[in-house]
Amino acid sequence: MTTALLAHDPLNSARPLDALSIATLAYLALPNFIFFAGWLRWPFAIFFSLLVASSIFVALDWRRIVWTLPYRAPVCLTIVVGAFVWSAFGGAGHFGAATIDWQIRDAVLGDLIHGDWPVSYAEKDGVHYILRSAIGYFLPAAVLAKALGVQLADLALYLWTGLGTALFMLSLPFPRQFGWRLLILLTLVTMFSGMDLLGVLAYQGDWPDFPGRLEWWTQFSYSSLAAQLFWAPNHTLPIWLASSLFYRHWHHPDFPAFALLLVALLPVWTPFALPGLAPFLLLAAVQYHLAGNRRLPLLAVVSAILVIALMARFLTLNIGDIPTTIGIHQTRAADQFLLSYLSFTVLEFGALALALSLRLRHSYGILLIAGGTLALLPFLAFGPSNDLLLRASVPALIMLMILTLTVFQPAGGAPERRDTPWLIVVVLAIGAFSPAYEFGRAATVRRWLPDYAPTLIDRQGGAFPAHYVGRLDRADMRLLLRDPVPVPGREQRPASRRRP
Questions:
Q1: Is the dihedral of CA 488, 489, 493, 497 positive or negative?
Q2: What is the pTM of this model?
Q3: Residue numbers in the chain where pLDDT is lower than 70
Q4: Which of 9, 410, 420, 467 is most buried, most CB within 10 Å of its CB?
């Protein structure tokens, strides 16, 4: 049983750390250093910055890193161009019609640009209400806009998004040669989704209006990759990158030390990355234990513990104000929940997971954990839009997508199967309607421009949403963080709306 669970992709899951791994680590690390410098008092900023930098230097065996890219130049260029084109359909850059959630994203970016850090929205009874959740994605663009002008904020955020998307796509197991197979599999990634169309037809009894969103046909939702990127890149990109790096390296003896660095860098980006990755990291820990690999670097262990502890205290400020329920309590009757749950699991991932199980020759543990995670998440609800379901599901969905990629390619020298996996093809083809509607909305709905004048609180109608704003009422956080500064209001900000 253990041997089956630890079976891995011999071609793609035991890769040595390479230039792409280090570039992705640097991408994830940069917002951490910006956060330390901008949010912590200077003694603690220096301490944590040196701690993380030294752990990166000590934990990795730099002599064993392969300083080459995973693909040849034509393939790399095709993947990178595809990533930036894909990103252009999202909200960063506002090249097309951004989703409504980008009003909040733009407000957060505007507050980080116009305000001093930590950003405070109010002070009541001596307690500041500060911006504290999922800000890592915005920090590099905010620093650049602070230095060079707010007019560059949108472009900077697009370039940062495109870079992260490119690093993610470069880490996926694509064909080594340029050709039709590469183009088809690139399309597969951008169009990967559950079969929402069938759910909409079953529940609504009619063809959905174009270009509406298909993914909320029941009380649960697992987003397509396109919807993840277009609606919430601040949560999506770090989870994508960590998940793809896990698949690339989890069976290599150098991965455990690298994984420690990863888990320390993720919380400043999003609080949902570690919960979603935890089952897969546990699988890697079992592999590490049974393989008898060398000891973990002590400095990397200490760094991970201290950074995660810091971010846990920061991110859980008044966390009790965020709504949490059991999934079955969201419906009026248990049978209604059961019907929704069964149809959702079959259409969103169950059919694909079953089809994959009939074709895979490796990675059974990853498939089992992915399916189990996706089956359990609907029973919990956390956040106003059930953010736990939306975000913690991403690693499992990414694993299913990567396993799907491997089915269409020979692996580890095994002879290629000539028969087409038609069941998988049909599932993917039906699922492609969801991202197609996302692309259609971005391309056909009237484009609107970013406005960085309204604050987050303005966009929330004067409310202080607990999933974005925390009460700085903990003594240890008051000691560690700089004194919060009230963010300038709309009337105090320079004009920031770009002209067409």
A1: positive
A2: 0.95
A3: 293, 325-334, 410-418, 495-500
A4: 9
